[in-house]
Amino acid sequence: MSLKKLGLAAAVLVLSSAPAWAEISCGSIPFEPAMPSAADISSKSAADAATAVHDAFEDIKHWQGDLKTYRDCTDKVSNQAQGAMASLDRVKDADKIKDLQAQKQEADHLYNQSIDREEKVVNQYHAAQTAYCMRSDADKSKCPK
Staple 106 to which of 22, 39, 113, 127, CB 3.0 to 4.6 Å? Predict the structure, then answer.
């Protein structure tokens, strides 16, 4: 293989991996906790249902701490790419700018994806909490007012 072909192959490899840079450097979105379903809450005893809702709440709080760390990383990647683009020449550094734009776009996408997942999990939690609070034997002091 000629040096020119080897250089071209290396450039293609680097460019094709650029959009995944944020994911690689920040890791994966933290694994979401399992939430009890409304049916699960309805089928348990009042004490077990209360415990399941409480445990789910604690799991979400812990997970949200992990999400904050993850989002801080994606923000950092996005901001660094944005900052790096500001100092580049639009003509001479067009390829670098394109790579940085892809990195910023990927970091922003991963951040938004984590928001979507958080919203889904919190909605599942609220459904379980509502199922608990609708029970006649529920401890209403544990329910939102």
Answer: 22
- The distance from CA 9 to its chain's CA centroid, rounded to whole angstroms, is 32
Gap between the Cα atoms of 118 and 18, Å rounded = 26
**Closest of 117, 115, 142, 120 to residue 131, by C-alpha:** 142
Structure confidence at residue 15 (pLDDT): 41
For residue 1, pLDDT over 90 is answered with no
**111 contacts 75 by C-beta, under 8 angstroms:** yes
Tell me the pLDDT tens digit for each residue of 44-55: 999 999 999 999
Give CA angle at 69 (56, 61), nearest 5°: 15
Sequence-ordered list of residues with C-beta below 8 angstroms from that of 78, at least 6 positions apart, any chain? 22, 103, 104, 107, 108, 111
Closest CA to 71 of 30, 120, 19: 30
Please tell me the predicted confidence (pLDDT) of residue 53: 97
Nearest residue to 89 (alpha-carbon basis) of 97, 100, 99, 81: 97
Backbone angles phi, psi at 28, to 5 degrees: -90, 160
